[in-house]
């Protein structure tokens, strides 16, 4: 075999590929000659390795050929030129470019925030696979059998549903329930407050697709078992394995202790599910047994079909739809409920809520999280699109206004032989570049504002960004197409110019594109006006609700939470009174009273109760509260009949005060008529009505007033209501905290002013308002940028007119009028369109409130005035300059 | 001055081309240098030196015959130009100047010791 056949093939090929053509013969020949010689003298192996080394050392710039990575064809050269020119243009007119880029970037930021919010809100409970059967929550609807009116709706339903529904109904595959009891978990003498302790069943993991990381799901059906969420396990045990550890659970609100063993750990629930992420899951039968001890008068069966508040969920067989399921469930419940329904005069029925709808179910009580509002979400979607539109219209406006400036350039290009297509390409490229800069700037801004945004909406929506990746890719595509389209219009307008006309110099008076420009500005003004009106309306409604007379004096009232249930013992009532006595001695404390409920917090304790004298007559869902004898005075409630509780009467234990609503529901002829009558609280408790108070809005004016009965307690209660002096509030708080800790060692001191509770009640409305405000500011900002940029071009264009007017004797005021009339006209037309639209929207929104403000002229007048002011300020400086310019300077250019 | 400067390796290459007279092509030059200086150089490094010397005008080249052992690829013969010869002389003269000023080369030895 000849030596050359042994040459390493790859290296041979590699060298041939890399070597310059003109060097190849010499170098490759030399290499092969050396190889042949080495092969004969040193042997095949050595020769090969020398050859390889030689080839490697050939890899130097003087030998390797030049590869053309980017093929050099003519369009690309032109493209490079376009790019260069574009950058120069953007750089040269910095004001214009900055306004365009900032305007677009602001629009992008706002729309990204809005769409992420909308995405998040509409993604609730989508993680569960329902192709193998739908998931429903069984909510409760209560109908008055007499009047046929629905009198209450609640997400919670009867205790007995879960255990029977899967056995009785073939359509139901599995069922689970949740019951929340806040408490404290104690491990190793260390307590951990767990607000969201849920009692459930192992089938929780059958119905839902939540992941159990460790343990067997059916262990949850054994009393004495506790499952922890991963975060809770981390909080209590750190990196230690939680499985097998022993934990104690104490309920916060009543004395109840459970010894538990950790048998499972599950993944934390994501934020976009309607179920509050439970810290821990426990076996629900323990709650059922505990409830039985609270209601000793009811037998087990009665308890199961009368005690509600359990969240029940079912998973049905594939193919079972809601329409056929719903009536079957209603019929099914009647089997168990019929006797109680008849007795109470109410039909308690089932409403099956499909899982993915639950987040938007509005008017049901006892939901775990505040409901989302589909109308608000639709509104935001519209706003998001509008803001991008405003930004783009600005961009189009500015670009086409700039056409005037660039007309000469285009004329010359055309005379030199540029095709229209080439000019369009040039302008499109500029548009795309500006859009890209805006996109980059926007990404930076978004990263900066995410924390603020999360604060604003109340949850971390952007942590779920990746879940919506397909949407965002689509958004990007739409954005790029949009930026092409927005570039296209000015490009087409600009390139349509007749070069001869342009170069002769009489282009500036052309009215090309004015109509479009005007209508775009009109659109912006309309949007801004509607948003501003909306904000005013929402603000005044919230103010109205906060300041409305609720029939209670809540001035300077602190509510201090009493100790958790497990820390209360038989001496608790005495202790509370002693504590009251102690703090009342402080001169800064004006009054105290004890109560089971405080203003702004929903009263959860209600019961169906009849009149003693009419056992089968009026059955009323009567709310009950427990107060001490100072309560009526403390909150300045009006006694309209009878008397207040009397501390001097020992027999005042079995008496109640009613509110006017209760008197009316029980059909007493008058408040006076009710005095001395008795109600039947069952179990042989028949308290006498001794007084009637005027209605007061326990939950604020926007909640219907419920019929209420107040009973007297001597000590105890859940809250200390304390009226304090305004001065020295920090010292007073410190004093209260110290005395509280002295009386109730080991329990946390939690005090807040009761009016703050109302802020929390209107939280959703406030949030809506602040979000709307934010977007209105964005919209106004973008519009301002647009008006500012545009006006500077238009004024430049009108300089000749202004100068001639001045020469002819026009005053400064006259000039300013000439320059601003156009905008004022646009505002007037925008007002004509915006007012009815805003009126309709505002009215619609206000109608969702029980008590609402009237639509006020100011809602519409103020935005118009504001808008005019903003416009004048924006264009003011340019206008002033134009009006003051010496006309000779402008005219001499002719 | 950059144009005519002669690096040490380039001087050796130039000398070996001269020494090989009519037989100066890649493989031969490589072998010559390896034998005389006892250092092995790669063909790539040699190429760099040759092409730089050619650029400076110290070398001339022409394509020669193709042989079978080269896979039918022609050789390239190098020849030192007059400019190259004078550059060599100049370099030699510079050295001599230095040697003269040092006087005795063994002086270096003592000073190192």
What keywords describe this structure?
heterodimer; A: 894 residues; alpha+beta; 4 domains; 13-stranded mixed beta sheet; 7-stranded mixed beta sheet; 24 strands; 52% helix; B: 113 residues; Arc Repressor Mutant, subunit A; 59% helix; disordered C terminus
What does this structure look like?
The complex is a heterodimer of chains A (894) and B (113). The model of chain A has no long low-confidence stretch (mean pLDDT 85). In chain A, strands 1, 2, 3, 4, 5, 6, 7, 8, 9, 10, 11, 12 and 13 form a 13-stranded mixed beta sheet that branches. In chain A, strands 18-21-19-22-17-16-20 form a 7-stranded mixed beta sheet. A 4-stranded antiparallel beta sheet of chain A has the order 15-23-14-24. Chain A folds into 4 domains: 3-57, no CATH class; 135-360, no CATH class; 374-545 and 763-891, no CATH class; 557-754, no CATH class. By secondary structure, chain A is of the alpha+beta class. By secondary structure, chain B is of the alpha+beta class. Chain B is built from 5 helices and 2 strands. Chain B is elongated. A two-stranded antiparallel sheet of chain B has the order 1-2. Chain B has helices at 8-20, 26-37, 43-56, 82-102, 106-112, and strands spanning 59-66, 74-80. Chain A binds chain B through residues 3-4, 23-34, 36-37, 53-54, 57-60, 62-63, and chain B through 25-27, 30, 42-45, 47-48, 51, 63, 66-67, 69-71, 73-76.
